[in-house]
Amino acid sequence: MTRPRWLAALLLALLVPLGSAPPGVADDKRPPGAAKGRDLSMQEENPLLTSPFEPIEKLRYDLWRELPKADKNEAWNPYRNGAAVFLDPTMLDYDHQVMPLLRETTTFSHTGRQAWAASVVRVDPLREYLKRAAVQRLDDAKWGELVVVSALNIQKSKQRHSEDVIQKVLDKYGIGDEAELLGSSERQNCSRCARLYRPDTPLVFGHPYDISVREWVDREVEIAWARNKVAHLGPEAERRAEKGVRDKYQERVKRRNATAKDKLVTDLGEVRRGLEARYGHEPSPAFSVDPKQCPDQGTGTQSLGLQQTLVLTAAAKAANPCDDAEDTPRVATGLGSMLAAPGLSTGGIDFSSMELRYLSDPGDGSGLAYSFSADFKPLKGDARTATGRAALSQSSDAFFVWLSLAPQNFWVNLNPDEPERIVDGRLGRTDAGKVMLEADLEMKKTVGKLIHPHSAPGRKFWAGVRGDCMSFRNWILPATASVHQDGDKLYILDAPLDVKMETQYLKDNGASSAASCPEQDKATEDHNEALFRNLILPRLKKAINTAPEYADLRRVYLARVAAEWYRELSRTKDTTYGDLIDSGDIDNWRRTGDWQPTDTFDRYVDSYTKGEFKVTDRTTKGSTTYVRSYVYGGVDLTRIPLKTVTDDRFTSDFAGLPQSVDRSLNAPSAAAGDETVWLGSPTPRQAETGIGAPAKQEGHETQEAQEPVSSGTRALWLLPALLLAPIALLRLRRRRLDAARRANHLRRNAVGRPPR
Question: Which pLDDT score, from 0 to 100, does residue 514 have?
Fold first, then answer.
């Protein structure tokens, strides 16, 4: 018997508004049934590898990285569905929605079995999935990124689907569904969750799931027809007839959902292998020895003591990550995990602003613990992980260069009359040397912009210049750095750079300066210098300490401050890299490529002769006066003045900083009260033994890893009591060796240092 079409249409019209919608939904919702959308399994062998699913799979990866070993498989559980909503930044309030949303966790949040993340993704890979009008709106507003919220549901929970988790987050920040540009879900959005989306919001899914809109209508029509057919037999017959229809459709849905689960097992397995192989471990060692080149013996006292007996060496191997580096790569923690990741859950971290602010040598012989500060700039900063890796590598390499070379050679000089005195030969073969030379050249260009007659300070400056000669000889120098030391830990609280004119620079170094303009009287020269010092120098100093074009210089300078402290620390205790100090060995940190110091010098001479930063004329009352100007100077980091901040002041002025740094060793740590994020990493041995384990997130539950303790590790705990006498003797022997090394440079090289 043919079903009446009018009955299906009537049922559909009546059933659309039935049921209570979850919080945050609008009135114009989709019809009952699984959400209609684009089935990417029809286009791709593994739809989860396409761009709409990248935030979801990155969330699974982050959860895998954070969970203890016993629970790690939960992150890739195919019964847990992942979903994401991509948001239009043109419809969001930057300060009250974007900033707080991305700042709440910086990376992601997981409480119990629920997980969600807010991140930033590029528009370009998603263009084909977005509406044309939305793409045009983003292009007109010059927004190249979108905000995305992704979530995983709680397994076997009918109340907290991944879409519910996302909706709760959006409701918290007052983000309406009009800002939703695209929704993605590993499984087709179920009939309940479909109503969370506006009918015109594009949706994509990985595999079909639940009952479709057409099937939903067909089922209701069949139920009405079946009940009507047996109505004369009474209510019980009608209930049995309805149950038969529902069971038929339920069996169909059950088979479909099982197929989706089976396909997700395969798809997620491929995704997991790819992410873990590519991003599961540190991209490269920083402030530590290369795990593939671990020393046979450490430089610390404990390591020397362990080597005296083969029995104890076997126990040490159980807890030494270096010994098993080839077979068991170290899982990335803290900053390393952020930089190893695909770059989707970096939130609003501006990697270009990374600066080394904490360093520690815990004495385990495997390297240094460290932490960087970075600015939090959602949609405005540089969130590329490649930028972060470059900043980390630059700081690490500079630190080792500052240790290996003698401080008296840490200067560069760009003077057209001194092509033979540009930079120390060895420093000039490192990235730190290049950074200093490029900063020196940039300083001269900044001066040129500041004194240009068309600029506001330039007009005022030239109006006050006297005579026909002016010399701009400036040197970038370290100002006093404020630091706090807590045992083997260094906190760099402030490390500004200073700029001085050459007369003051030479005076501070005990030398006298020759007249810059010999034909000009001293009173005129002093007047012009005072004018420059008062009007131009403060602006130049501000640029060097804040402008992005000097970020590399500030970064290598902070490494210089850390190295100066480390030099002093190494005089009083055994340190991991004490034997590198003044060794002169820069082989591991030499620049690669064709750049030579003379390349920067030639660019300087070329710019100087063409007048790029050399102003040679000014107009006064209609007449032209020609002024000879000289733009010389350099960068001098030979001496680092350190001011130690007392414990009391550190506790009062920097409360919470140690906790932020400690948390950063595992995951990004947002500092309270400002827009700073801390990004750190423990030493390899600390990471292996649990320092830098998942940190407790304020307001969230934590799952602490309860790792089994090996018998070898237990044996190590007993070693201090067993080896007090041998350790004391070895320590005495080591101090004598250190004394010999410091007494004789050739002797130091003969004794050797830990390979890297």
Answer: 55
pLDDT of residue 324: 41
pLDDT at 73: 87
Query: What residues form DSSP beta bridges with 369?
Result: 360
Please state, in angstroms and as integers, the Cα–Cα distance from residue 65 to each residue in 109, 320, 340, 348, following that order: 13, 21, 12, 20
- CA distance to 122, 165, 261, 406, per residue, from 35 (Å): 26, 17, 18, 68
- Count Cβ atoms below 10 Å from residue 38 Cβ, excluding itself: 16
Residues 6+ apart with CB under 8 A from 8: 217, 218, 221
Beta-bridge mates of residue 430: 590
Asked if 439 and 414 count as a contact pair (C-beta separation under 8 A), the reply is no
Sign of CA dihedral 463, 465, 469, 474: negative
User: How many C-beta atoms lie closer than 10 Å to residue 607's C-beta?
Assistant: 17
- Tell me the pLDDT band of 326, cut-offs 50, 70 and 90: very low
Q: Which of 10-19, 74-83, 663-672 has the lowest mean pLDDT?
A: 10-19
Largest CA distance in the chain: 122
CA angle 373, 676, 150 (to 5 degrees): 105
Strands (E), 304-430: 349-360, 369-376, 411-413
Contact 98, 92 (CB under 8 A): yes
Res 278 pLDDT > 80 = no
If you ran DSSP here, which 8-state letter would residue 95 be given? I
List Cβ neighbours of 473 (8 Å cut-off, separation of 6 or more): 501, 502, 503, 516, 630, 631, 632, 633
Q: Which residue has the tokens 């006050």?
A: 464
Region of residue 367 (phi > 0: left; psi between -120 and 50: alpha; otherwise: beta): left
The full length of the chain comes to: 756
Structure tokens at 486: 């807590």
Closest among 177, 171, 170 to 199, alpha carbons compared: 177
Region of residue 334 (phi > 0: left; psi between -120 and 50: alpha; otherwise: beta) = left
Structure tokens at 726: 């041998």
3-state SS string over 683-739?
CHHHHHHCCCCCCCCCCCCCCCCCCCCCHHHHHHHHHHHHCHHHHHHHHHHHHHHHH
Tell whether the model's pLDDT for residue 157 goes beyond 60: no
Nearest to 550 by CA among 436, 473, 451, 634: 436
What SS3 class is residue 315?
helix
Task: Give the pLDDT score at 756.
Answer: 30
Report, in angstroms and rounded to the nearest whole number, the Rg of the chain calculated over CA atoms: 33
- Here the tokens at position 315 are 């126990």
Residue 324 CA to residue 536 CA, distance in Å, equals 57
Q: What percent of the chain has pLDDT over 70?
A: 72
H/E stretch holding 475: strand 469-478
Element (H, E) at 151: strand 145-152
